[in-house]
Design a protein that fits this description.
The protein is mostly beta strands and 93 residues long. Helices cover 0% and strands 67% of the residues. The protein has strands at residues 4-10, 13-20, 22-27, 37-42, 48-52, 55-61, 64-71, 74-79, 82-87, 90-92. The strands form 2 sheets. A 5-stranded mixed beta sheet has the order 2-1-9-8-5, with no helix packed on it. A 5-stranded antiparallel beta sheet has the order 4-3-6-7-10, with no helix packed on it. The protein starts with a strand and ends with a strand.
Length: 93
């Protein structure tokens, strides 16, 4: 089964580098100032860039929670099943 390659990068370096089937994180406010809410990325997701808001990051392997933590503000990129979260901080639970 194909997987996502996830990297969580902080000013201190790479906090997490793993493979997973999906990841969920919080988006910043949208253009109308409304809270962006929780957002998920799965295998085959379209190439994207997102502004992230401080909050939980949940990493799943075959629908089971494999890793969780909290990130600071930042941004995420998705390209060719590679997800990079570039954030101010990351604390693994």
């Amino acid at each position: 089964m194909k997987k996502l390659c996830l990297e969580i990068i902080t000013p201190s370096g790479v906090a997490i580098k793993t493979e997973c089937t999906s990841v969920r994180f919080n988006l910043s406010d949208d253009l109308k100032g409304m809270h962006g809410g929780s957002y998920g990325v799965r295998i085959g997701h379209t190439d994207s860039i997102f502004a992230l808001e401080k909050g939980p990051v949940n990493v799943f392997e075959d629908e089971a929670l494999a890793l969780s933590g909290e990130c600071g503000d930042g941004f995420a990129t998705v390209k060719n099943n590679q997800v990079k979260l570039v954030v101010e901080s990351f604390l693994k639970y």
